[in-house]
Amino acid sequence: MRDRPLQLLDWYDVHARSMPWRVPPADRKAGRLPDPYGIWLSEVMLQQTTVAAVRDYWRKFTARWPTVSDLAAADDADVMAAWAGLGYYARARNLLKCARVVVADHGGVFPSDRDVLLTLPGIGPYTAAAVAAIAFDRPETVLDGNVERVMARIHDVHTPLPTAKPHLMALAAALTPQDRPGDYAQAVMDLGATICTPKSPACGICPWRDGCAGRIAGTAASLPRKTPKKAVPVRHGFVYVVRRSDGAWLVETRPDTGLLGGMLGFPGSDWSDDPRPAPPVGADWRRLDATARHTFTHFHLELTILWAVVGSDSMPEKGFFQRRGVFTPAALPTVMRKVHDLVAESLPFGG
DNA sequence: AAACCGTGGTT
DNA sequence: TAACCAAGGTT
After folding, report:
1. For A100-121, what is the mean pLDDT?
2. Which EC number(s) does UniProt give (predicted)?
3. Nearest protein residue, CA measured to C1' of B1
4. Which residue, counting CA atoms, is nearest to the C1' of nucleotide C3?
5. CA→C1' distance for A43 and C8 (Å)
6. Is residue A182 part of a domain?
7. pLDDT of residue A211
8. A44 touches strand B (CB under 7 A)
9. CATH number for the domain including A272?
10. What is the per-residue pLDDT for A228?
C-alpha cells in the first residue's frame, strides 16, 4: 500500500472543496497561506455547524470587520446581532473576547503555536490544531467528527465515542505528515464530508479504500459507534410581545450566561415544566392563537405568545423599546424570530 | 465528567 | 417524522 498521507494529498489536489476562506492546494504548494484571522473566524463558525450555513456569515463578518483589530473594536451588540441565527452564541461572545486578547496581548497578530492558541477564549483542542495547521502549516493533528469517523473506519475501531477519542487521536497523529500538514488536515475533513460520510460512505471512489479495515470487514457504515443520547424533554413558557403605539417593539438583552446569552429577545417566563407568567408591563394582554415551537440541543420548547399594544408613555419593568428602523428580526436568535414572525403575520400592524 | 449550549439539512 | 448529524468549547 502506498503512503497514506500522500494518497490523500493527491486526491485533495484534484477534489478539494472551494471555500471563501480557503487557499486552494495549487496556491498553497506555491507558498501562499491564508490570513490567520479568516481561518480562525471560519473555524469558530464551523464548530458543530455546516459549511453551507457558515459561508454567508463568514463573508458578512470579514466584509464588516476585515481584521482582528476591527473586530476587537466592534460593539458587542453589533457582533451578537451579526451572529444571530448561527447558534451556539457563546461562540460569538468568546470570539470578541479572543479578538481583544489577540490585540491586547499579542499585538494584533495571531499566535501560530498550538499551545498558545489553546489559551485563547473559544479555542479548544480542535480549533487550536486547525488554525496552527491550516493558517501556519504547522504539523498539528486535527480531530473533529470527520476525522474520528475516518479513523474509526480505516482501523475498524469498535470502541464507542467518546471513550475511543484518545485512541482515535493517536491513530490520526500517526498519519499527520511533516510536508503539507495544512492541506492534509483539510483533506481528511473533506474526505469525511464528501466520501466517508456518516450514513452510506462512497467506498468505491475512496482514495483510502485499499487499506480500509472497516470496508474490508463490512463494518464501515456502522462506525464510529456512539453511546446513546438521552431523550429530550418538552418544556413550556410564555413570551410577551409588546408593540408601542408608534410601532416600536419591546425587547431585552438576555443575561450574558446561559441559553441565548447576550442575545436580543422578547421578555418572558422561565422555560420549565410549569412556568408562571410575569408580564413586563401592565396592559390588556391577549393570547395569540398560535404556539411557537422550537428545538434546542437538549429540549423542545413550546411558547405561548401573549401580546399587547401600549401607549407612548409606557414604562416597562423589563427591557426597552426599539423603534422602527432600529428593530430588525434578523438580529434575533431563531426562536425569537419565530415568535416575531407569528406575531407579525397575525397582527397586521404595518411591520 | 457529564451537562449545557442552536440551528438547519438529511434520512 | 423523529432522530440524527455538523470543522466543539466551557463549566
Report:
1. 98
2. 3.2.2.31
3. A162
4. A231
5. 10
6. yes
7. 93
8. no
9. 3.90.79.10
10. 85
